[in-house]
Amino acid sequence: MIGRLKQGVIGVAAALAFVLAVGPSAAQAQQDMGRFRVLIPDLFPAEGTDDDFGKDLAKDLRELMSTLATHQAIEKDEIEDNLKRFKMKMNELNCIRTRQLGAQINAQVALCADYERQGEEMSLSNIQFVDMGSSQVFEVNAVTVNRRDHEGAARQIFDAFDRYVQQVRFRAFCFDYANSSQWENALRNCDDALALNPTDEGVLYQKGFILWKMERLEESLDQLEGVLETNPYHEEALQLAGFLATTLGMNDEGREFYSRYLELNPGAVAVRRRIAYEMFDAGDPLGAMMLIDEGLQVEESVELLGDYGNYAFEAARQATPEGVQSGDAEIPEETRDLYAKAIDAFMRVFEAKGDSMNVGQLRNVISANIQLGSLAEATTIAEQVLEVFPQEASVWAVYATALERQDRVDEAVAALGEIEAVDPDYPDLFARQGNMLLAAGRRADALPILRKAVDVQGQDPNRVARIIFADAYSKGIQPEQKNWPYALEGILAAKEYSVSAETSQELNFWHGWVLYQQGIGVQEAQTLASAQRALPMFQDAKELFQSAQAYAQQRNINLAQILQATDTYIEIQDAIIRRGR
């Protein structure tokens, strides 16, 4: 966003500077031979200093300037004619009035300088060439000469003017190359321009912009801070510095830059919203929220309230500790407060806008209540929203979450079922229904729905098989469970899917492990009947283990030891069966 805004500024500045450096505009083409007009008034004397020196110096400088092929000093007669027109006098032309006059008489450059007699010397100070088009100032070092050497003073200022012309030329190329995204060339010319005029605010900012475009973010920010030391309210520098500081994770500094920028336009809602979005986009939703809150103190608007809710919700989401479940007491109080603020803002927008409100914001209201553990409130709001937006699949989905958290599984599954009519391609629809039923211990109900996830929605069969296996493992294989029949039934259901070799080996290993454990339990009786039942279990387990060698190796499972134990059990069952016969 900043790039688009600033690139337009670059284009205008570059075009203007380039014209000043290498060619006249249409208006300037009407001047003598296309040369740029330079306003050189009689220099401004300090109180008590003879004005003849300033008059003579200006006359000498006009003559020198008129020898140039590119520039033409405005004749003194023309200056005086215009002074009469504006009811001014030559001895009133301090720097401010010189610039004002230059703007009125189509001067492209104006000279400002003061002088004061100090014994037998004249001291010239505040010597500046002002670019009337860009208002940039080229400062010339103070000059001290004999009080009668106006020609020497004129020569020194004239020599400095040559450096000014070079600086304008480098400045032009700096902007022109930047406008065409030739960043290396642009940076080189900016540095050349700054070597001749280190205080050129426009080039200083431009260099910071170029460094940003070259992805040298820290250097860019340092450059912009230098601009802001001279001009604390340089709008473009404040805006870009705020963006860079936030991008670099310096959120407090970013907020400071943006706040100073907005001091210039405290009531500009559109500007505030744009800057807040830049902060959010750069990774500081809390700062964006605070910025919007400042605007709400000036003037409350529905747009600002909506933005406030968005940023408060995202700030809360980011502040929620990883692994903490919604509704958990471990959610920090500051995070809860952010969710509460988001809810309040969104509900006020809903009251104002009704069915014209962004439904995503209403979904966030429901989600925020779920995060806070206010499940009944979340359910009530979801039902109100669905009365207005019955076709919104995402609202049905978050409504189902609120119901599931209250153990209202059938209602939650039914809520997800509503999505099938609204949006049959809604991601994970059947997988989520199946997961809900598995979590509730209703595997028989879950399996046909999970089959639809693959057959109807085209879900990855490996993923669905792993969902079924995960349930079998957690409820049947985990040491504290050891429900081998439940585990076996789940693994067999998972193996009905056409899965990859990797998934197949994983399922085979655990299928073998369940049979192995079942066989151990059956063979404990050490009877003919128990041996006849246990032997095929161990034999099948051995075959399954052997087919899962890559999986066992990947998981650092000592498969050789397991196979050895399995062979031992097989030998024992064989011996019992032979003896029994």
CATH class of the largest domain reads Alpha Beta
Number of domains: 5
Structural class: alpha/beta
Give the CATH superfamily of the largest domain. TolB, N-terminal domain
User: Total strand count, please?
Assistant: 7
Unreliable sequence segments: 1-33
Arithmetic mean pLDDT: 87
Please identify, by name, the CATH architecture of the largest domain.
Answer: 3-Layer(aba) Sandwich
Strand content: 5-15%
Q: What Rg do the Cα atoms give?
A: 40 Å
Sheet with the most strands, sense and barrel status: 7 strands, mixed
Helix run count: 26
Q: What does this protein look like?
A:
This protein has 581 residues and is of the alpha/beta class. It starts with a helix and ends with a helix. The longest helix is centred in the N-terminal third of the chain and has 30 residues, at 150-179. It folds into five domains: 25-167, Rossmann fold (3-Layer(aba) Sandwich), CATH 3.40.50.10070; 215-299, Serine Threonine Protein Phosphatase 5, Tetratricopeptide repeat (Alpha Horseshoe), CATH 1.25.40; 327-421, Alpha Horseshoe (Serine Threonine Protein Phosphatase 5, Tetratricopeptide repeat); 427-499; 517-581. Strands 1, 2, 3, 4, 5, 6 and 7 form a seven-stranded mixed β-sheet that branches. The chain has 26 helices and seven strands. A hairpin with a 2-residue loop joins strand 4 (109-118) and strand 5 (121-131).
